[in-house]
Amino acid sequence: MRFVWAVAAFVLAALMIGAGIAQRTVFQGPTSHSEAIELEQDVPYVLLDGEVLRSNPGSQTLRAQGDGEIFAAYGRTADIEAWLTDAEYAHVTLDGESVATEVVERQVASTDAETDAADAETAPGRSPAGSDLWLDEFVQEDLLIETLQLPEGMSVLVAADGVAPAPAKLTVTWPVVNATPWAGPLLVGGGILMAVGVVMYILGIRSVRRSRGPRRKGLPMPVTEPIDLATEEGAKGVISASPTRRALSGKRRPFIAIPAVAMAAVLFTGCTAEAWPQLGGSPTPTPTATVIAPESQQAPAVTEAQAERIVQRVADQVAAADEANDAAAAAERLSGPALAERETNYKLRAAIAEEEPLPAIPAGPLSILLPQAYDGWPRTFMAVVGDEETGNTIMFLTQQDPWSAYKLSYIGGLDSTAELPLAPAYVGATQVSPDNAFLTIAPQDLASAYADVLNNGDASEYADLFDEAADQFRIGVANDRAGRLAAFNETGAQTGSLTFESVAGAQTPVALATLENGAIVAVTVDENETVKPTNEEAVIKLDGNPTVSTLSGATQSATGFTTTFGDQLFFYVPAKASSERIQLLGYTSNILDAKVIQ
After folding, report:
1. Please, which residues have CB within 8 angstroms of residue 338's CB and are 6 or more apart in sequence?
2. Looking at the record, which segments are called Disordered (predicted)?
3. Rounded Cα distance, 391 and 220, in Å
4. Are 85 and 156 in contact, with CB atoms under 8 Å apart?
5. Which end of the chain is more exposed for a tag (fewer CB within 10 A), N or C?
């Protein structure tokens, strides 16, 4: 009976294992679906619309084939189209359920047809590599981008170098869901039945062998007689008895079980999650507080990954400019007050060997991001970079048009530890106009008001607007002025005078709104330090002051000198209806210029 059960187990195991293997092979079907796209016209760029990529479920794999290196990048569709405004390109879109390709002509601003045609023929190509608009980019000879999962509003740009024709053959591949949830159970069940059959077979053999042993009751055995070995021709010695059946069969048992174990191991190898039924329920997301953007609000200018890459590029390029003492190279990534202070530093370093360079632009980590929610240009974002150990740096970066790089315009050390009501990076913030009347003070008036506080202290009419307790910069300016004036009066009070005056800087303020109708505002304030003689015979000499003499181009003057320090200041300005005061968040101060008084 045991042999019958063993045979039945073997048969069932073979059927189950065969069915499991068949589900993973001949019955499984294709694992992917591909769409080939071929361009009939040579164009320098191809815009592969995100609708084409999302026309089938699952992640996408993009392959582009052509001569030489191939460039591909993905980003917002509106940004790519804006970047391609002045270029001819092929737009691959979805027309119903089929893929359609349309060549978009280059847009020009002129109304003269002949001029437009001439410009189109002589328009130079532009490499898309390195643009700050892309969320990510790839360069390969045989381009293959796997596991793309672009959300709505995202597309892919494919090109060579902007001059040569773009790859004419593109292939998009999607995975096909063909899970075989019963393949795994069938293989495992078949392996278990095979093991059961082996056990039943061994037990059957053991039972048969035991049944052939000596019995207590039975017919009498015939009388045995001794054998005369000497009569055997050629026999020598004594013939030993044959080994018992138990000894012969004892070495065979391992060879019976080993194939079953090996077969099970082979069957279980390669069983992925698709070969098993998913019995567990779908995970339930944990609810978190969210911020809903207004319907009229546009998309944020950058994502966190994009901002991190931009800040890294700015840091690298400015570091190279610092090393080369090259103001033109710095201007590729700096503008406004951030560029002005470095131009002055480069001039001083070229003339004074002991002059120290300005602190390097930190590259990360990015701890706070507040991008402007705006689809047009110029667009701005605020970033806080650094940590508690290295110190935090606050900065504003602006992109003037789709073809320009983001440039750092304002930078300062973050001095405040207050938690501000900022919108999350995926929502962004609107830019506040300079004349906004809903803030405690309009951004365009903030610099002059704070300059008046620096000049007059608590006597200023604007003193009550600012939080003095959190303003370490104001305290430092007051102490520095008092110390410098005391040192000057020890030797020069009889023949000269030293005065200080703060005025609003010439740079346009930058402001981004917060959640409670406030704003983060960056402004500049110029601190002028003027020293001049008080009698006609006195002369101001710059002994031991190579900085002022280098910038002014003089070593002495009968009229005196004016030295200007530039302050980049970051404030949190609450709403007019709020009871909060304006809070200084961060600042930086460096020398800008020195002139002879005319």
Report:
1. 395, 408, 409, 410, 411, 568
2. 109-131
3. 105
4. no
5. C
Picking from 76, 56, 54, the residue whose alpha carbon sits closest to that of residue 155 is 76
Q: How far is CA 598 from CA 242, 265, 419, 559, 593, in A?
A: 129, 94, 48, 7, 15
Q: How far is CA 220 from the centre of its chain?
A: 95
Distance of CA 532 to the CA centre of its chain: 54
> Which residues contact residue 413 at a Cβ distance below 8 angstroms, ignoring those fewer than 6 apart?
391, 392, 393, 394, 586, 587, 588
* Secondary structure (3-state) at 495: coil
Cβ-based neighbour number of residue 375 at 10 Å? 12
Q: How far apart are CA 61 and CA 120, in angstroms?
A: 34
pLDDT tens, 564-589?
999 999 999 999 999 999 999 999 99
C-alpha to C-alpha distance for 79 and 72, rounded to whole angstroms: 15
C-alpha span between 202 and 388 (Å, rounded): 71
Check pLDDT > 60 for residue 467. yes
Beta-bridge partners for 399: 379
Where does 372-442 have alpha helices with state H? none
Determine phi and psi for 156, rounding to 5 degrees: -120, 135
Identify any residues that bridge with 141 across adjacent strands, giving them in sequence order.
Answer: none
Locate 373 and state its tokens: 């929610």
For residues 31 and 178, the answer to whether their CB atoms sit within 8 Å is yes
Q: Which residues contact 131 (CB under 8 A, 6 or more apart)?
A: 73, 83, 137, 403, 405
pLDDT tens figures, 394-429: 999 999 999 999 999 999 999 876 788 999 999 999
Distance, CA of 332 to CA of 132 (rounded, Å) = 13
Task: Please name the residues in contact with 321: beta carbons below 8 A apart, sequence gap of 6 or more.
Answer: 327, 329, 330, 332, 333, 342
Q: Which two tokens stand for residue 224?
A: 């045995």
DSSP 109: S
The tokens for 325 are: 């003492």
This prediction's pTM: 0.78
Three-state SS at 270: coil
Contact 586, 567 (CB under 8 A): no
Which of these, 437, 313, 428, lies nearest to 375 by C-alpha position?
Answer: 428
Contact yes or no for 309/363 (Cβ under 8 A): no
With beta carbons less than 8 A apart as the criterion, state whether 534 and 496 touch. Answer: yes
Q: Which residue has the tokens 């119903």?
A: 96
Distance CA 206, CA 252 (A): 12
376 contacts 304 by C-beta, under 8 angstroms: no
Give the Cα separation of 95 and 99 in Å (integer). Answer: 6
